[in-house]
Amino acid sequence: MSTDARKYLEKSLGRMSLGKAIRAIRQGEEESQIDFAHRLGISKQYLCDLEHDRKIVSAKKAKQFAEILGYSPEHFIALAFQDSLEHDGIHMRVEVKAA
């Protein structure tokens, strides 16, 4: 996702989180939480907590989710790092690039 697209979405919908992104993907694919959680290898409750920003995932788990779903690992990892910073009250912006 480009920086301009992210800024537009955040202005329209609020800050994007990994949980919101995963929820949007699941809903776009019209998949139940149970089926989607199974696909990701997590419990339905964990998925629910993630979608509602009650859980923060590691970079490793974010990368795994991206690969399973066919999305950019860099984008998912950036969102996971951003969620962690926001959770800790650190107001900085994260950018991740492949090495």
TrEMBL record:
SUPFAM superfamilies per UniProt: lambda repressor-like DNA-binding domains
UniProt GO molecular function: DNA binding
Family annotation (PROSITE patterns): HTH_CROC1 (PS50943)
InterPro entries from the UniProt entry: Cro/C1-type_HTH (IPR001387), Lambda_DNA-bd_dom_sf (IPR010982)
CDD domains: HTH_XRE
Protein name from the UniProt record: Helix-turn-helix domain protein
